[in-house]
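Q: Give me the 3D complex with cobalt (II) ion.
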Amino acid sequence: MGPTPEELPRWREAARIASRARELGVRLVVPGARRRDVADAVEAYVRGAGAAPAFPANLSRNDEAAHYTPSPDDTAVFEVGDVVKVDVGAHLDGAIADTADTVEVGGGRRHENLIRAARDGLRAGIARVRPGVPVEELSRAIAEAIRARGLKPIVDLTGHSIEPYLLHAGKSIPNVPGRGGGETLREGEVVAIEPFATNGLGSIRNGPFGNILRFRRDPGPRDPVLERLYGRFRTLPFATRWADAPDERDALRRARGLLQAYPVFVERAGGLVAQAEHTVLVGPNGAEVLTAPPGA
Ligand code: CO
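A: Here is the predicted complex, encoded as structure tokens.
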């Protein structure tokens, strides 16, 4: 179930914060900027606004589609021509917003068609949102918009419904038709729509570790450092940057079996990937785009 009417103001506020954090990230991704500094700044903005990151700031580049966040020791910088996905989440007491956009570093226009394909897909999907509409209709509109620019939607990454404290709730919003479970949208539901466009094969494989972890369960009181970390993150995804003290690094190494480690999703043929994402509320007459740009 989506939020109750009483909870909606909190969801709108979480989304406003996520939207501003996304815009900040987009502005900071410039040639020579350190990836780690950008991720830290985006997350600091979310915390400073009174929310918490719903997941680490994802700054996946080029053929990385998703799930890359800088490591604590990352000294890499953005380079001219990099295609960077700024994917940001904020939550306020379990009210979650998830939003992304893609930047070509340095402001060139070599990858404009790719970036526009993802945004077109997002716009086309949002335009179909209405209570009772089959999810398949959104998927078809997304895929057609991306293919109209001569590019491919990534078939194995999907949008998702969002529920209190649950970023990926029960419903998937595939970016191509024929992949869903025949569901329809319901009024009052919150969904993240996130098309990915590529000039590669249109599917992903698991790449190396992306510096994002999650506790599978409560580690219990035996290890005080782990207990403290679990108290902070519970079962939400967190960045290795957030548990960077020497005793915390050691504790996480000891606790491998308790932790889920997220791999980076990499385009299968090494194609470039662009992503665009908004969190929307299924309103009585259509989508309310909760993460719309400030002032839109
Ligand atoms: Co999402």
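A quick observation: Helices lie at 8-28, 35-48, 112-127, 135-147, 224-233, 246-254.
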